[in-house]
Amino acid sequence: MNMQQPKRTCLTELCPRLATASQMRELDRRSITEIGIPGAVLMENAGRATVDAMEREFGPVQGKGVCIFAGPGNNGGDGLVIARCVHGRGGYPLVLLFAQAQQLPADAALNWSILKRLNLPCMVLDESVSVASSLEQANKELFNRPVHSVVDGLFGIGLTRAVEGMYLHALHALDSLAKQHACPVVALDIPSGLNSDTGQVLGEAVQANLTVSYGLAKPGQLHHGGPHCGRLQVVDIGIPKKIVASAALQGQLLDQSILSALAPRTSGTHKGTNGHVLILAGSTGKSGAALLAAQGAIRSGAGLVSAAVPAKLLSIFASSLVEAMYTPLVASSNCLSAADHGLLATLCRGKQALVLGPGIGTAAETAELVLRLYQERQETMVVDADALNILAANQDVLARPGGPRLFTPHPGEMARLLNQPVSQLQADRLTATRKLCQLCEKSAHPVVAVLKGAGTVLATGDDRWAINTSGNPGMATGGMGDVLAGIMAGLLAQGHALWEAACLGVYLHGAAADLLAQTQPYGYSASEVATALPHLFTTT
């Protein structure tokens, strides 16, 4: 079969990078020590870029009050620069410093001294000063005018323990002030109270309307922390591109730039050049799962899609999706059975991608078949749903895939695979996704794990990882995962590499739902998401 396709742009060249807290601190350090950019310059750039972002989102600060909650670190120093910039643009800043000035880091201390020489209104708060009374005084003295926004500069990306004491009072006061004046909250780098790497709420966290991320996006902004971040804007603070490039960051942010990895089709393209997918899915009462997976494969552009189905269900499939081809499994009565292993082995040959699992159930005869196919078949396989549940009960087999494997668990399935509570893996979704890959680390075949959910996480066995930005709450309905499995298989069949197909599939799936959400926020179906997929493809 001629599988030649136009040259695609490498995925690693397209997607923005993500940085953990330690990686971001290292980028800052190297910019200062190796390139010679003073830390005060990076802080100045951060503050000015934040005010630019504030004005883009919420209009000019001129003539309006801006209250800045500044903490004891460099995040607070960024807030001090913001105060000066707001003043320079005709606004009325008020700084509430939750630290002793003499304890500030050098760059933050420099900006504090500038504010004092400018005689800008500042209040120093510590454990001996009532936060509530200070805010009351601030309201009386400064906010006899419209309030533009409240700025959260209490903690940056380094926070790793629960907020308590004076700072917890500060979080409450910040929220109260924003509600009192009906104004937005702007978080610097990440809302205070969130873990920058996991998005976990450390006790309590600021609810921001806008988060301005410095240099690169952080994983915690896209995990559970997403709802706390509001709208996310990533701004350039002057970290040189060569420093970022040389850091070899493995994390990627999946946004619309990934669509450039979809190569345009030539005039000579035909169904034979776009690959053949085989769907192994469905059982009595769950035929819809197989049909949805087939729709996903077809709508993602696969040239041919076949499905092997229990013979009793053939009429349902043949009349429901006429574009696919079906092979009845005579020995499989109500579910896929190991008795049809020989026929299935023949059907797998020549296929560029397999989908195994949606709606198959976990009957003993099905489990036997799944375990054999998983270990024997060299074809690239998307492993989903009940196939994952079967593997979870057979961990020794999980570690012995017969070929490249793409796992697509939701949190419940992942919990069974890792033998840990859902709450534990959800607290650190990236670590959980990596652990699934590590279960296959002795295998000679590549694996990719995809932990579905808001901010879907992807990881490989060679330390690459990504977080998706597309999708919306309207996707919380049955069948979405079946369509995703089919999309990924369709992309694999068309020649995309395992990692690329996973990343593209996840983004396309969410982006198609986002198209629907523009007119119907929820209530659309999984099949409608599949139908919306072609609208994302272009001819250029």
Describe the structure.
The chain folds into 2 domains: 18-249, 3-Layer(aba) Sandwich (Rossmann fold), CATH 3.40.50.10260; 272-536, Ribokinase (UDP-N-acetylmuramoyl-L-alanine:D-glutamate ligase, 3-Layer(aba) Sandwich). Helix content is 40%, strand content 15%. The chain contains 20 helices and 18 strands. Strands 1-9-18-17-16-15-14-13-10-11-12 form an 11-stranded mixed beta sheet, with helices on both faces. The chain starts with 16 loop residues before the first strand and ends in an 8-residue tail after the last helix. The relative contact order is 0.10.
Rg: 27 Å
What's the average pLDDT? Answer: 92
Percent of residues in beta strands?
Answer: 15-25%
Kindly report the spatial arrangement of strands forming the biggest sheet: 1-9-18-17-16-15-14-13-10-11-12
- Identify the CATH class of the largest domain: Alpha Beta
Instruction: Please give the count of helices.
Output: 20
| Helix content range | 40-55%
Question: What spatial form do the alpha-carbon principal axes imply?
Answer: elongated
Q: What's the structural domain tally? A: 2
CATH superfamily of the largest domain: Ribokinase
Q: Any low-confidence stretches, pLDDT <50, length ≥5?
A: 1-7
Instruction: Please report the distance between the alpha carbons of the first and last residues.
Output: 25 Å
Structural class: alpha/beta
Number of strands: 18
What CATH architecture of the largest domain do you see?
Answer: 3-Layer(aba) Sandwich
Q: What can be said about the biggest beta sheet?
A: 11 strands, mixed
CATH topology of the largest domain: UDP-N-acetylmuramoyl-L-alanine:D-glutamate ligase
